[in-house]
Structure formats: structure tokens, C-alpha cells
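S.,

Sequence below, as promised.
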Amino acid sequence: MNPLIERDMTDSKINSLLNDVLIELHRSLIQYTAEAWPWSTSQDVESRQLVQQIAIRQQAEVAELAQLLQARGWVIDFGVYPQDYTTLHYVALEFLLSYLKTNQGELADWLFSLLPEFAGDLDSETLVRKIATSERNAHHDLCELKLPGGTSEMAWMK
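The prediction came back faster than expected:
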């Protein structure tokens, strides 16, 4: 095979994966929650601030991915929220928190699993590794979150 064609196919595959990462971040459950905050008490400032902080970090990561893809001439797809998220509109934060933790953990695991795909593309690999680490830290922060009034997830929510 012609080396130029082979390189174009590799670049296309990597750019497509980068766009997949962008979509997963841009349309994550954290982003959805930040836009449609669940029912919670006015005492629940810490939870809301944490979700907002994670959402802002993800938005910055999306911007970095978009810059890289744009510099490479890639037509960016920003995706849409999964239909399943619409069932989480009128739920209590205590209920939603388990979903946020699971979603965030799965996102971080998926990002780390992608790293070998970026071998040979230092810019992409470095950026995705940074994002994966950030998402793992966000998962940890969600797991450490103390709900208002000292409440925790009820057994039936786990």
C-alpha cells in the first residue's frame, strides 16, 4: 500500500476517535446534569458546585479537542445527548448521584482504554491521557461527595 494513503487512513482513524472523545465529553451525563439540575435542597450548594466544576473542565477539554481537530482540517461532530438522559429530569440528587458516578467511571475507563489507539500521534495521546486523568479525578471527587444533611445513597439506589 502507498505510505501516503496508509498515513491518511491512520490520521482519519485517529481524528475519528478524537471526535468520539469530544462527543462523549460534550454530551456526558455531567454536562446534561449541569444544564438540567435535579431536585435538591438549597443546602446542596457543594454538590451543585462540584458538578459545575467538572462540567466546566469538560467544556475546556472539548475546546482543546476541537482546536486540535480543527487544526487538522477535521469536520467536527458535536453529537447529541442520549435519549436515556431525558428520563432523569425530575429526580432527586441522591438518586442521580449513583448514575453520575457510574457514568463518570465508565467514561474514564473508556478513555484510558483508548490510549493505545493514539500511539504514534504524540499530540493526541498526550491530550487524551490528560483528559482521561482529569475524568478519573472527577470520578473520585464524585465518589467522595457528601450529600447534604449527612445523607448517603439509600441501599435501593446502589
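The chain is about 65% helix and 0% strand.

Coffee later?
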